[in-house]
Amino acid sequence: MNKKYLIVSLEDPRTKKIADVLSNKTCKKIIDLLAEKEASKTEIAKALKMPLNTIDYNINKLVEAGLIERSKNYFWSTKGKKIEIYKISNKSILISPKPKNYLKPIIPAALISAVITLLAWFFSRTSAFYAQRMAAESTGALKAAKTEAFLASIPSWSWILIGIAIAILAYIIILIVSWKRLIKL
C-alpha cells in the first residue's frame, strides 16, 4: 500500500528536487496534462508539442520528486517495446522546517525533578530526626516514638516524585498525539 503523504524537511535533499520541478514550466505542463488523464511519454510530447527528449528528461525529474509515478497499465508498441504510462501520484506533500527534538526539554526537567526530590527527601529525614530528638527531650520516649512513626508514614518526597513522573508522562503523551494529528493532515 502506498503512502498517501510525503513529509520532507527543509534539510531533506528531496526538497530541492520538488522545488526544481515545481519551478519548471515544462514540468507544470506535464502535471496539468497528467491531472486530466494518464499518458505515455510520446502522447505527452504530442499533446504539448515538445521534443520527446525534453519530455523524457522532465518526466524522470517528476518521478524522482515523487509527483508522478508509472501506472500499472502499459501497452506494447508495434516494434514490440513496452510503453510505460504515467499518472499523477495521489500524495499530499508537506514541507516542514528542520525537525525539533521534542524530548530534549525532558532531560533538564527530569534532572531538576531529581534534585528537588532528593532535597525533599533530605529535608524530610532531617526534620524527622530533629522532631524525634525534641520529642525525646521534652516528653519522653513514648511520645518520640509516636512522632517518629507519624513523620515516617508521610514520605513527602515520594509524592513529589510521583507528581513529576505524571507531568513528564503527560508531556510525552501530548507530543505523541499532536505529532499523529500533524501526520493525518
Task: Write structural notes for this entry.
- With 185 residues, the chain is an alpha+beta fold.
- The chain folds into 2 domains: 5-96, Winged helix-like DNA-binding domain superfamily/Winged helix DNA-binding domain (Arc Repressor Mutant, subunit A, Orthogonal Bundle); 106-184, no CATH class.
- It contains 7 helices and 4 strands; from the N terminus they run E-H-H-H-H-E-E-E-H-H-H.
- It has helices at 13-23, 25-36, 41-48, 52-65, 106-138, 141-152, 156-184, and strands at residues 5-9, 68-76, 82-88, 92-96.
- The strands form 2 sheets. A two-stranded parallel sheet has the order 1-4. A two-stranded antiparallel sheet has the order 2-3.
- A hairpin with a 5-residue loop joins strand 2 and strand 3.
- Helix 5 packs antiparallel against helix 6 and helix 5 runs antiparallel to helix 7 (156-184).
- It is rod-shaped, with a radius of gyration of 34 Å.
- It starts with a strand and ends with a helix.
- The model has no long low-confidence stretch (mean pLDDT 75).
Supply the key terms:
2 domains, Arc Repressor Mutant, subunit A, single chain, two-stranded parallel ribbon, 7 helices, rod-shaped, 4 strands, two-stranded antiparallel ribbon, 185 residues, alpha+beta
Break the fold down into its secondary structure elements and pairings.
Elements: E1 5-9, H1 13-23, H2 25-36, H3 41-48, H4 52-65, E2 68-76, E3 82-88, E4 92-96, H5 106-138, H6 141-152, H7 156-184
Parallel strand pairs: 1-4
Antiparallel strand pairs: 2-3
